[in-house]
Amino acid sequence: MVMDPLKKYLHDHSRQRDPVLEWLERKTRYRCVHPRMLAGEPLGALMTMLVKMIRPRNILEIGTFTGYSAICMGRGLSPEGRIDTIEIFDEYNDLILEAFKRSGMEKQISLHTGNALDVIPGLQENGYVCQMAYIDGNKREYCDYYRAVKQVLEPGGYIIADNVLWDGKVVDPKHKDAQTEGLRAYNKLVLKDPEVSMVLLPLGDGLSICRKDGPASDSPTD
What we know:
Layout: H1 5-12, H2 19-31, H3 43-54, E1 58-62, H4 68-74, E2 82-87, H5 93-103, E3 109-113, H6 116-125, E4 130-135, H7 142-152, E5 153-162, H8 178-192, E6 196-201, E7 207-212
Parallel strand pairs: 1-2, 1-4, 2-3, 4-5
Antiparallel strand pairs: 5-7, 6-7
Helix pairs in contact: 2-5, 3-4, 6-7
């Protein structure tokens, strides 16, 4: 894969060499039909940094792919921190679990196979809460993911969503496909939500970061 010189510079200067992530990038390019779905750098290094800044006890990820972003977030976790990552397809489970094992974080990262909209309510029924969530699943369902995640996100927690600019399609009215419309709806939903503060960044394919400022949506109000 030939990389744009500026992207290569960003990639090479965002993180010190991590043999596990380098191995996973190679395996992803070799095995996967759409290897560009892998987070890569500098997003991976940013995710590590955000985890170190936010210091979450629990992280919820929607869209594992081959596990790169989960490992990056895991690199920033405290020893008692945990990640629950959800992937709807099981075809790369062997690669994901091997990557987690190679990273030394197989006990801190739990892989759930299934639709996130089915998995999250099950976690919630068992009292699950998180302080950070990363959304990188089906673009058509981003709004549904957001609403589900807010139910388990503690006040003061953060939701990070990737691909929210979608190669610039969100600003081009001629693109009306379901994925683009889903992302437009997501960006509008987060912007208009009075319970959060947010910022939209042109990093990679677009990164949305929002903080849940208001009370938990299922909490009573005075």
